[in-house]
Amino acid sequence: MKLRQPHHAAPGDAAARRAARPVVAYRPDTLPPVDLAGLRARKARLTQRRSVVAAPRDAACIEVPAGAVFRIVCTGGPQVGDLNLWNARDLTERFYAGKTRALHGTHLSTGDRLWSSFPHLRPMATIIADSLDWYGFDADGASVHDVIGTRCDPYTARLLGGADYHQCCHSNLTRALAAARALDLDVAEGLVHDVLNVFMCTGFTADTHQYFMKASPVRPGDFLEFVAGIDLLVGLSACPGGDCSAEHSSDAAACHPLVIEVDTLPEGAEDDWQPPEPVPYDRSHGT
């Protein structure tokens, strides 16, 4: 964090330097627009449903075909989840939380897209409904569904707490991916990545700008709903922090399951869905 008492004196033009006009780094209005009406109309055609449960302090994976709708549903009580997305045909293409944050902001909601890693950089999924969109930003500057925090993990837990804890979201996702694709744990761990913190309520403190969490406003029945742009493997961890009102990376919090529901076209139905193409950069990098 920035020093409260700097070690160096401010220059004479410090006020002018601080008064520089902020410029938004990326302009998402230049992206192709999201056709929410069309995506929601498509949803009405998807009549075949299956689901998987991410148990408390554990994770689950489920395949979602391109053009299908998947939603994350709170069921038993206030609970946040850590979401990973992989290209089901190539696990090295995965959700890029940092670039998604740069394009859409620190917290996501309806109409935002979840972008994939280089060299693909295409929308893996688009949010089409968010039952917590009423929350907005509160007096602390907090909101829900962030792409700020990474995921709770056993390495940071060990570093700060001095003990091993194996039900962190990083470990939960590693186990779930390893089981889903019959991978060695070390291979699966290398594919787990920064997350969308579903239902988590977070922000930055006003004084030190440190990442904070507070009790999630999520309640049973709340959901976040997406359309899959490409064939996906979706991984979700039901965070050991429960509603994240106190702490995570421990067994102290009350935790509840989360459900992933997947709606697809009936078997044999014709489909005109066109997955988005990767960004057509030639990858020459100036050579």
What does this structure look like?
With 287 residues, this protein is α+β, with helices and mostly antiparallel strands. The longest helix is centred in the middle third of the chain and has 13 residues, at 169-181. Helix content is 17%, strand content 28%. The mean pLDDT is 96. The chain has a domain at 52-220 and 228-255.
Provide the descriptors you would attach to this structure in a database record.
single chain; 287 residues; alpha+beta; 17% helix; 6 helices
Write the layout of secondary structure elements.
Layout: H1 14-18, H2 36-43, E1 48-54, E2 59-64, E3 69-74, E4 81-87, E5 90-94, H3 97-104, E6 113-115, E7 123-130, E8 143-146, H4 154-161, H5 169-181, H6 185-191, E9 196-204, E10 211-214, E11 223-228, E12 232-238, E13 258-264
Antiparallel strand pairs: 1-13, 2-12, 3-11, 3-13, 4-5, 4-9, 4-12, 6-7, 7-11, 8-9, 9-10
Helix pairs in contact: 5-6
Q: Report the helical percentage.
A: 10-25%
Beta-strand fraction estimate:
25-35%
Mean pLDDT: 96
Task: Categorize the overall geometry.
Answer: globular
* Helix count, DSSP H or I runs of 4 or more residues: 6
Largest sheet: 7 strands, antiparallel
Structural class: alpha+beta
Give, in order, the helices and strands: HHEEEEEHEEEHHHEEEEE
Strand elements, count: 13
Which regions are unreliable across 5 or more consecutive residues at pLDDT < 50?
Answer: none
What Rg is obtained from the alpha carbons, in whole angstroms?
20 Å
Distance between the termini: 38 Å
Give a short overview.
The protein has six helices and 13 strands. With 287 residues, it is α+β, with helices and mostly antiparallel strands.
